[in-house]
Specification:
Number of domains: 1
Strand content: 35-45%
Strand order of the largest sheet: 3-1-9-10
Structural class: alpha+beta
CATH superfamily: Cyclic phosphodiesterase
CATH topology: Cyclic Phosphodiesterase, Chain: A
Radius of gyration: 17 Å
Largest sheet: 4 strands, antiparallel
Number of helices: 4
Distance between the termini: 31 Å
Shape: globular
Order of helices and strands: EHEEHEEEHEHEEE
Length: about 180
């Protein structure tokens, strides 16, 4: 099964981001119930022992609850002309600290961790080859939208399930962070 460690986005931020749905034509909008900030992608994992390794490593993490501070939306190129829309999350010291703790725990559990820069965000949709001026106007319009910060009290180990249109995410285990 495909696994990743993330922060599940809670209310009222979830609802504020969901208000963007339908604001740009041609977007396949992500279900707000699946909004999350990925901390560490583990990929395909099989075997009870590997799941126990993950559980032990994540259970040992001690960190305070995280305040997610949303920022303006942006776009990632996905290849094949597709683009991914997202809402940025500020790279605060506590969030970066938690990210490092999760990656260190997963390395100790013998997982290969991607070596790319951590860019915290919430994916909100995907679209194919939008007109650049239309996308630029959308980004400018929504960049000033005040989104509320939200405190996240736990880490979640998610399973990614591929669907016909988009993936869905199933929480497997939640790990409380200190308040």
């Amino acid at each position: 099964m495909r696994l990743f460690v993330a922060l599940d986005v809670g209310s009222p931020l979830r609802e504020a981001i969901a208000a963007l749905r339908g604001s740009l034509a041609g977007v396949s909008w992500v279900d707000p119930a699946t909004y999350h900030v990925t901390l560490c992608f583990l990929g395909e994992v099989s075997g009870r022992n590997r799941l126990e390794d993950i559980d032990m490593a994540l259970s040992a993490i001690r960190a305070p609850a995280i305040d997610l501070m949303p920022g303006p939306p942006g776009v990632f190129e996905q290849g094949s002309g597709r683009q991914s829309l997202w809402v940025g999350i500020a790279r605060t010291a506590p969030l970066l600290h938690l990210h490092r703790k999760v990656e260190t725990a997963m390395r100790r559990a013998d997982f290969a961790i991607e070596r790319r820069r951590f860019h915290p965000h919430v994916t909100i949709g995907a679209l194919a080859a939008p007109a650049p001026e239309m996308l630029a106007a959308w980004l400018a319009r929504w960049s000033a939208l005040p989104l509320p910060p939200v405190e996240i009290p736990r880490l979640t180990l998610f399973r990614s399930l591929r669907g016909p249109d988009q993936a869905s995410y199933e929480p497997i285990v939640e790990y409380d962070l200190a308040g």
